[in-house]
Structures are given as structure tokens and as C-alpha cells.
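Can't paste images in this forum, so I'm doing it all in text. The chain is below; anyone willing to post the predicted C-alpha cells underneath?
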Amino acid sequence: MNYQETKKGMKQKRGFTLVELVVVVMIISTMFVLTTQSLFSGSRSASLDQLSTGLIRDVREQQIRAMQGSVVTLGSVVDYSIRFEQDRYILYPGMVYDSGNVQNQVVLLGPTMQFSVIGVPDQTITFARGSGEVRGFSSGSDTVVLTDTGLGDAVDIRINAAGVVFINRQ
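Text version of the structure:
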């Protein structure tokens, strides 16, 4: 048996008390919760950064297509546009959005991602063929805000008249 003699000659059990066990379990649980929260928030933050970087890349590619005068159909050179919706953005040729156009490229946002502010006219940015400038640019109507609703983080993405993209993390 696991007994130990005390000074008075009585035998005493060795081990942990219930209070000691509860305290240790609470400390380990607290450490686990804090660790997993920081890990998951870091990955969500990374997702927001990746999504905003992908959006900027797509904006620049649309602008380059317009500047190069890419031919779409029947030998015509067209503008290139980006349409913003709350849970997605769509890359498409031309100035007028046609949901049935097979050349549209739809980019879905993640389940906790959304455009919380779409501050561009008609939810669309159109790059002019040849110059790559933003058609119908209006100062003050040049921003979209990409938000991670799970964390409350957001990124302001502003596009000026020349099509230059600026980012500001909130």
C-alpha cells in the first residue's frame, strides 16, 4: 500500500486532493481556450488578408486587360468591369453586366466575409479600354469595405480615377 508514516506514527495516504485536481483542470482548460482562440483568429485574419490581396490582383488584371485592348467577341475591343455584391464579386467584359455571360468570373467570399460597404456607382468599377482609367469616376464614391463578420476586422479598398488601388486595414 502507498502509506507514509508521520511523526506521530499514524499512516497517511499520498495523492492529490479534489481541490488540487479541480484547480489544475481549470488552468489547463483556460490555457486551451486562449490558445485555440488566438490560433483561429489568426487564421481568419490571414483569410481576410488573402481575400483582399486576391481582390487587388483581380482589379489590376481587369485594368491590364482593358489597357491591352483584349478582344472578347466578334473582334471588338471592350472595357473590363468588376461588379461587387455583398457575398461575391464578378469580373466581366464590357460596361453592362449580363448575369448570363459565360465569360463572367464569379469570386465567392468566405462564409464570414462580406462587402459591408459598396461605395462605387452602380456597384461597378469599369476600366476604359486603352487607358485603363476608371469610367465615370466620382471622388468619394471609390471605396469598398471587405469585412470579416466573425472577427469584426475590415479592410477599406479604394480605387482612384487612374485605377490605382489603396488599402487601409481598420
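Helices lie at 18-68. Strands lie at 3-5, 11-13, 80-85, 88-93, 105-108, 113-119, 124-127, 143-148, 153-159, 165-169.
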